[in-house]
């Protein structure tokens, strides 16, 4: 297992293509200028030791040296063993509504992306807490099992979209039932479920299901995204908008946020409803709740004893730079005798 300590230095790799472009431009300028003053065959006789190949070879070694030095700056580390460690935290599961109505653009960029922002920023505020993600529309599906790997959670989250579910609708009940299977630690004293939705297409028995979860010790928070006045649902093909979703009568469907539904679910579970149209508010509320919650100890496996590997890349990079310094861009005597590239024949 490996990790990158300073990934920001990868941006320096832009130097490599930039130097290639500059080299080609200089080479073109030199050839063009030489042709103005002399015939090409005469130039080869006046400068028999000139070698384009050696110039290219020097550039290759220089670029390799720079590339390896940049990798050394990034400082890749290698994990040498997997060990079990004890950590303290809570279990928090996010249930994300990915139904078509979440594509409405009444809040920028749209409801679904706003929901993702809330989850991602909340995850960034967590410490050693475990996190899981459920997506649901007409059915509920596990997107990410509960884990301490917050980077993986953010990666899976970004890929969530309506095409990942087989049927449309808003099956909050399914998400609630699936959430129960996520909490695999019976001794965990604090278990949280955060539902993010516009609240449309709910089922009447949802409140009872939420109440049952609360009786099992799961604290439920609901976050509403979208405007109550509603907005049409854009339809896109290959990223291009082709119109808005219409009903059986050919009229444009207007999807509205239903705060009363989400408030009712939260009330039934003795939780809280939060307006999610401004990202910072739900993030702060959830982060404060998690920070003040009693932490439980749990075991997790992770790679440890990460060792720096930059020295290998540094040594290789310096080696290539030394070769570049001692490699002349003119033909050497022994190379002229060997004439590997038949340059002598071409010069005649």
From TrEMBL:
It comes from the Bacteria. InterPro entries: Aerotolerance_reg_N, UPF0353/GerABKA_families, VWF_A, vWFA_dom_sf. The keyword Aminoacyl-tRNA synthetase does not apply. Keywords: Cell membrane, Membrane, Transmembrane, Transmembrane helix. The chain crosses the membrane at residues 6-29, 55-74, 310-328. Residues 91-226 form the VWFA domain. SMART domains: VWA. The keyword Membrane applies. This is BatB protein.
């Amino acid at each position: 297992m490996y990790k990158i300590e300073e990934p920001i230095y990868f941006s320096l790799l832009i130097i490599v293509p930039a130097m290639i472009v500059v080299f080609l431009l200089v080479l073109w300028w030199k050839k063009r200028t030489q042709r103005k003053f002399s015939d090409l065959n005469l130039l080869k006789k006046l400068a028999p030791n000139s070698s384009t190949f050696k110039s290219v070879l020097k550039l290759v070694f220089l670029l390799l040296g720079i590339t390896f030095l940049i990798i050394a700056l990034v400082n890749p580390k290698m994990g040498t063993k997997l060990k079990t460690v004890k950590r303290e935290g809570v279990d928090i599961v996010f249930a994300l509504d990915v139904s078509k109505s979440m594509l409405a653009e009444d809040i920028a960029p749209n409801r679904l992306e706003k929901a993702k922002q809330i989850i991602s920023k909340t995850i960034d505020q967590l410490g050693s807490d475990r996190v899981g993600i459920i997506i649901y529309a007409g059915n509920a599906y596990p997107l990410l099992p509960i884990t301490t790997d917050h980077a993986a959670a953010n990666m899976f989250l970004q890929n969530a979209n309506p095409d990942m579910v087989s049927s449309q609708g808003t099956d909050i009940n399914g998400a609630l039932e699936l959430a129960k299977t996520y909490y695999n630690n019976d001794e965990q004293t604090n278990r949280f479920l955060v539902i993010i939705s516009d609240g449309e297409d709910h089922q009447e028995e949802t409140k009872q299901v939420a109440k049952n979860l609360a009786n099992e010790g799961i604290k439920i928070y609901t976050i509403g995204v979208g405007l109550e006045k509603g907005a049409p649902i854009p339809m896109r093909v290959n990223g291009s908008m082709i119109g808005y979703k219409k009903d059986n009568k050919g009229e444009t469907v207007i999807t509205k946020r239903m705060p009363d539904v989400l408030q009712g679910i939260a009330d039934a579970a003795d939780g809280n409803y939060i307006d999610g149209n401004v990202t910072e508010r739900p993030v702060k509320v959830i982060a404060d709740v998690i920070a003040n919650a009693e932490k439980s100890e749990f075991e997790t496996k992770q790679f440890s004893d990460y060792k720096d590997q930059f020295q290998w890349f540094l040594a290789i990079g310096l080696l290539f730079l030394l070769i570049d310094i001692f490699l002349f861009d003119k033909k050497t005597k022994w190379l002229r005798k060997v004439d590997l590239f038949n340059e002598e024949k071409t010069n005649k």
